[in-house]
Amino acid sequence: SLKASLVQAKAPVNFSSMKEAFSPMVIAFGIFCMYRGRRFVVDAITATETEANKSVVEDSTAAAETQLEQTYLDWSWTFWLGETIVMTSFVLNSFEKRPNLLLALASVPSLLLSLWLRGRFWRYATLLGFEGVIALLVVLAFPVMEMILESIVEEKMRKVGEKIRAHDARMKEIFRRKNERQKGGSDS
Questions:
Q1: How far is Cα of residue 47 from the mean position of the Cα atoms in its chain?
Q2: 69: three-class secondary structure by DSSP
Q3: How far apart are CA 72 and CA 86, in angstroms?
Q4: pLDDT one-digit tens code per residue, 41-62
Q5: Is the N or the C terminus of the chain less surrounded, counting Cβ atoms within 10 Å?
Q6: How far is residue 105's CA from residue 111's CA, in Å, rounded to a whole number?
């Protein structure tokens, strides 16, 4: 048993180790909910005509043969719950500290995003494409913005340096005049 092996190894079970093990279990529960949400069977009645009924044109009372077909739901509230749990868990795992406010802030977008995605592949692909475009813009725009900001800061520093040098020259001139007055006053 796990408890006996921990006692033998003298490894203390503390809250942080339990917290690290909790995250994969929550993700596994979310994935199980997603799996289970797609496994609800729906009975659909489809009407098909038999070959014999197709040949009878004059008989208007030819009944359509009904057939019971079992399909699975594409989306359910259980799937939505699992998808929300998985998204929220992955967002929270991106941060070192996990305050309750972060849980609330991560849950709301995950709820709304999972309502839009609904487990459809092309919606996930669209979202990933959108993220890729944003990443490309960031990769291209940030170096340009850095160069612009660097030139602005350099110009400002040059102006500040000129003002400091001018102030230093004024202070040296005032100090020189003051020394001349003191020498002139002490000579008489």
A1: 46
A2: strand
A3: 22
A4: 776 665 554 444 554 544 444 4
A5: C
A6: 11
